Amino acid sequence: MTPSAKRRAIAILVDEHRLAVRRACQALRLTRAAYYRPPRAAVARDAAVIEALTSVVAAKSRWGFWKCFDRLRLLGHRWNHKRVYRVYCALRLNLPRRTRRRVPTRLRQPLAAPATLNQTWAIDFMHDRLYDSRPFRTLNILDEGNREGLAIEVATSLPSWRVLAVVDELIAVHGVPTALRLDNGPEFVAEAVAVWAAAHGIALRFIQPGKPDQNAYIERFNRTYREEVLDAHVFDSIAEVQAETTAWLRSYNTERPHDSLGRVPPLLFLRRSTSTSESTSQVST
């Protein structure tokens, strides 16, 4: 029986049954000092524990209870583990805590259309689902010089090693670009990508977090691809998505007029020296 419940029971015995306070306290085994002492709110009673515990968690967000408790003991606090754990749970610190993703600081990347090809390739991911709700991703690569879609790779998973494999295949066909324009996705900030870029002499131009306008060319390309392919068809398999994407990408590069290119297709605006216009650089799954 908690002290607060005992106080309520004593009050009933005194008020309704006319029992003396001393005898009522003896019956409920509560001292008269405890009965007369005004109850303190739990927050006020545990204020010191709350302050000490939250300060430790704020500094070490990944520590569990026992590390926090041992740290409090080292700081000189003598509360027992039961009381600290009660406060720990009341603060909901026993639940998984999500920490903010640390995003590196990036410089603003100016968006200027290169006068020649292979100056800057823009890369981005898209997400969608098949008819049976299975998710898939697409890796879209664009040459900013003539807005040519170099490749759209479709798969359920596209880790960094597969991204590099697709880019290597494009390099074998079109040559090495001067730079790649990327966002801050985990596939792009991986150490393997930095090592690969240094080995090929390719600059990595990361846009600022939350600034997709710094990668506007491929964002516009993604919108067209979604409207004319992903939202226009119902797909049952990854193979169907890849086949429809391959046909659409060939048409986009050779037939579809582009408003910002003088209403001509990308390969008519700025043709490549290699004869790859008919076999547009689409990498199969």
Characterise this structure.
This protein has 285 residues and is α/β, with parallel strands linked by helices. It has 3 domains: 1-39; 41-98; 120-269, Nucleotidyltransferase, domain 5, CATH 3.30.420. Helices cover 44% and strands 12% of the residues. The chain is built from 12 helices and 5 strands. A 5-stranded mixed β-sheet has the order 3-2-1-4-5, sandwiched between helices. Helix 9 links the parallel strand 4 (179-182) and strand 5. Helix 1 runs antiparallel to helix 2 and helix 5 crosses helix 6. The chain is elongated and about 105 Å long. 22% of the residues are buried. Mean pLDDT is 88; it is low at 275-285.
The CATH architecture of the largest domain:
2-Layer Sandwich
Low-confidence stretches: 275-285
The total number of structural domains is 3
Which overall shape is indicated by the principal axes computed on the Cα atoms?
A: elongated
Largest sheet: 5 strands, mixed
The overall average pLDDT, rounded, is: 88
Structural class: alpha/beta
Strand content: 5-15%
CATH class descriptor of the largest domain: Alpha Beta
Helix and strand string, N-terminal first? HHHHHHHEEEHEHEHHH
**Widest sheet, order of strands:** 3-2-1-4-5
CATH H-tier superfamily of the largest domain: Ribonuclease H-like superfamily/Ribonuclease H
Q: Helicity level, as a percent range? A: 40-55%
Write the layout of secondary structure elements.
Elements: H1 3-15, H2 21-28, H3 32-36, H4 42-45, H5 47-59, H6 65-74, H7 81-90, E1 120-129, E2 135-143, E3 148-155, H8 160-174, E4 179-182, H9 191-200, E5 203-206, H10 216-230, H11 238-254, H12 266-269
Parallel strand pairs: 1-4, 4-5
Antiparallel strand pairs: 1-2, 2-3
Helix pairs in contact: 1-2, 5-6, 10-11
